[in-house]
Design goal:
The protein is an alpha/beta fold. Helices cover 50% and strands 14% of the residues. The chain is built from 17 helices and twelve strands. It has an eight-stranded mixed β-sheet, sandwiched between helices. Helix 8 packs parallel to helix 13. The longest helix has 21 residues. The relative contact order is 0.10. The mean pLDDT is 95.
Length: 342
């Protein structure tokens, strides 16, 4: 049995508590300072989660942000990061008040960051920020893959990959979290798993646009029936670019063909916020109009990533080698119609 603290009571952090409890672990879910109302609602409604639309296990301990220090004082063996990439600095500030080097960090967060004018993974950022607070040799793993939170909360069979440069660490964590419906494969390619899990959000928007991009003059009825010709082509080209991207930044190309890359791209392209954004872009709508109208108030990870990384990627990479990526970045960062040079 392990003592596990999950920080972030959103959909994925909360859903991850379900398999975490299966192996008789002691699991605490704590909300951020922005989630006090959500935590109150969970407690009032007998652990019914309003986003997941399902009841979390009764064994789960649910705490408010104000109880953070108390929970950290109990020295959880594993700290799970369930906040967004924008919340990583906040996460470090909180745990550094009472962190111990023998604690393991497991990263659910997907994303990349520009830190001191350099593209880095979220695990690298965490290590740098903790190092500046005199914490050394941080044991951090990333858990990525095709996992929709509502499905996981309802125990739908799910496969993910957990990565740590020390494969024995990934293997140990796999045993902690794996159940009969939630299987965690292992990898030592922490870099490649994080890169794949993040960049697939950009390409899932592109594949989501495939119906609108499938034929300039065909009737909508024809495009809606036969656009999979175009989608298949874009999947193939997207994977090729993802392999080049991951390799460029030091990951293993084989990782892209696994759960963190191809697997996660498949789920994201079939539906969800990234695919929905892509669908509107493919229909000719402009990004700023979409976020002010059809998708007002909805965070789209792929679009946020494009906005954050756009300038760095233009400077670092070749448009000839990454034409699809640059097409999406131009559409979002320059607020122009999505066009593909077929």
């Amino acid at each position: 049995m392990k003592k596990i603290l999950v920080i972030g009571a959103g959909a994925m952090g909360s859903a991850f508590c379900v398999p975490s409890l299966e192996n008789k672990n002691d699991v605490t879910l704590i909300g951020t300072h922005l989630e006090n109302q959500l935590i109150e609602e969970l407690k009032k409604k007998d652990n019914f989660h309003p986003i997941l639309q399902t009841k979390l296990p009764k064994e789960l301990k649910i705490k408010k942000f104000s109880e953070m220090n108390e929970v950290l004082n109990n020295k959880p063996e594993i700290i799970v990061v369930g906040v967004s990439s924008l919340g990583i600095d906040w996460f470090i500030e909180q745990i550094s008040k009472n962190f111990h080097n023998d604690q393991k960090i497991v990263l659910l967060t997907k994303g990349l960051s520009i830190f001191e004018n350099k593209l880095i993974t979220i695990s690298e950022k965490i290590k740098i920020l903790l190092d500046r607070k005199n914490f050394k040799n941080i044991n951090i793993s990333a858990l990525k893959g095709p996992c929709l939170a509502i499905g996981l909360a309802n125990k739908i069979r799910t496969g993910v990959v957990i990565a740590n440069p020390k494969i024995e660490e990934a293997e140990e964590l796999s045993k902690v979290f794996s159940t009969d419906y939630y299987k965690a494969e292992i990898s030592d390619d922490l870099n490649g798993v994080e890169l794949s899990g993040a960049i697939k959000n950009i390409y899932s928007m592109l594949i989501g646009a495939s119906e609108g991009l499938s034929a300039p003059n065909a009737p909508e009825e024809i495009k809606s029936k036969y656009y999979l010709n175009t989608a298949s082509s874009l999947v193939h080209r997207s994977i090729s670019e993802m392999v080049s991207f991951v390799s460029h930044y030091g990951g293993k190309s084989d990782t892209v063909y696994g759960l963190a890359g191809l697997g996660d791209l498949y789920v994201s392209a079939l539906g969800g916020r990234n695919s929905k954004m892509g669908k509107y872009l493919g229909q000719g709508f402009l990004y700023k109009d979409i976020i002010n109208d059809q998708m007002e108030g909805i965070t789209v990870e792929g679009a946020e990533l494009a906005l954050e990384l756009g300038n760095e990627l233009r400077n670092e990479l070749s448009g000839k080698k990454f034409p699809l990526m640059f097409n999406i970045i131009d559409a979002i960062c320059n607020n122009q119609k999505l066009k593909i040079n077929w």
